[in-house]
Design brief:
Layout lengths: L245 E4 L7 E6 L6 E6 L3 E6 L4 E6 L22 H27 L4 H11 L1
Antiparallel strand pairs: 1-2, 2-3, 4-5
Helix pairs in contact: 1-2
Length: about 350
Amino acid sequence: VCGKETREAAEHVYDNDCTDTTCANCGVTRPAAEHVYDNDCTDTTCANCGVTRPAAEHVYDDCTDTTCANCGVTRQALEHEYEDCADATCENCDYRRVAPGHVYDNDCADTTCNVCNHETRVAAEHVYDNDCTDTTCANCGVTRPAAEHVYDDCTDTTCANCAVTRTAPGHVYDNDCADTTCNVCGKETREAAEHVYDNDCTDTTCANCGVTRPAAEHVYDDCADETCANCAVTRTAPGHTWGEWKTTKAPTFDEAGEKERACSVCGKVETEEIAKLVSDTTSSDTDETTKPVGGTADTEPVDDGGDDGEDKGLSGGAIAGISVGSVLILGTGGFAIFWFVIKKNTWAGLLAIFKRKV
């Protein structure tokens, strides 16, 4: 009112020295002030207004940083943490590295890393320069006994595992003829062979396998055969032992007959022909004569020198009987018709028959 400065200015009064913006006495406003902490991370009470807060975490650039970026507090550096030896990024600070990779005691069989203890792979197979004869793994240096070569059978020349070639030994059999299964590889690789003998009859030992047998008898076609059918050995043939001739077909004027005989030892049958009957007719002033060749006109052939000596046709006695019967029954005329017309014989032939019987 009077314009005199009679007092000192009073400080503004705020409910909260930091966050309150209006003076409680005069209503003047101001910007809110920031809280003030003795330590920007760990101090929880504002030095100006007494407001409390949760402690803040220290902030570091990475695990190896020792000074907090906010409050300057120092610490011991931390090690980076990775999931395993193949992990390139730190799990705490995202720091990236060149992953060293797993380390194994054995490059083939070991499945767990010596550094991170992670079982990170399937065991690898050993690698050998030769799958059979090489004893040291090319990857890990582990040694093993040499393996045997594997062949399909005794005639196989190439190993199924390592492809090494060999001179095949061939199959081995207990018996070179009858045995079909190899003693070494057990495969039934052939058909049984026939035994071989120097002589198919008398030789008792097989030339291939040594098996013995009883000697076989020689085989001949018949008693006249001189050469064995099995082994070709020759002999002096004993000859046939013939039986008597037997007429199997009587001769006629139209057809020849046949006779046979058999060997009593070998059963061979020999056959011969009997000549057919032939009439030999001569004429004279008084009569006509008919002479059968090879036999009579109505009887068996005359003996031709063979061994049987049998007459198979009508005998002379039979003809005489027929003649007498014909005379008795038919009379002289009937007999004449029978003898001269039907049989075409002569008086000489009739007399010859009666003479033979007398």
